[in-house]
Amino acid sequence: MSEQKWRVTVDRDICIGSGMCVGTASNHFTLVDGHSTPTSEVIAPDDTVADAAEYCPVEAILIRAADSGEVIAPQG
Ligand code: SF4
Fold first, then answer.
1. Please, are residues 39 and 29 in contact by the beta-carbon 8 Å criterion?
2. Which of 56, 59, 62, 63 has the most ligand 1 atoms within 8 A of CB, as the residue to mutate?
3. Residue 22: enclosing H or E segment and its boundaries?
4. Which of 2, 7, 69, 76 is the most buried (most CB within 10 A)?
5. Going from the N-terminus, what domains does the chain have, and what CATH number goes with each?
6. What is the CA angle 22-73-51, rounded to 5?
């Protein structure tokens, strides 16, 4: 399990640019033209990124297991 990677995506059509994810996980998200963008698409598991996905007000952030595609966050 320690080898598992996460794939992070942001749906820029849904993102309202609140910047909350940048505040929660500044290493992993950046605002580009008013929409969040992951700084890296494939990352080592990181609780701050999972938190950002949970807290995004419009659930624009999706984290999946890079290998299986299983949804890791948000948990709904
Ligand atoms: S928290 Fe959600 S809506 Fe806000 S900038 Fe990040 S992805 Fe966009």
1. yes
2. 56
3. helix 20-24
4. 7
5. 6-67 (3.30.70.20)
6. 40
Q: Residue written as tokens 């624009």?
A: 60
Residue 22 Cα to ligand 1 middle (Å): 8
Residue with token string 């849904």: 14
CA distances from 41 to 20, 62, 75 (A): 18, 11, 19
Kindly report, residue by residue over 30-60, the tens digit of the pLDDT: 999 999 999 999 999 999 999 999 999 999 9
Alpha carbon distance 19, 26 (integer Å): 10
Cβ atoms within 10 Å, residue 57: 10
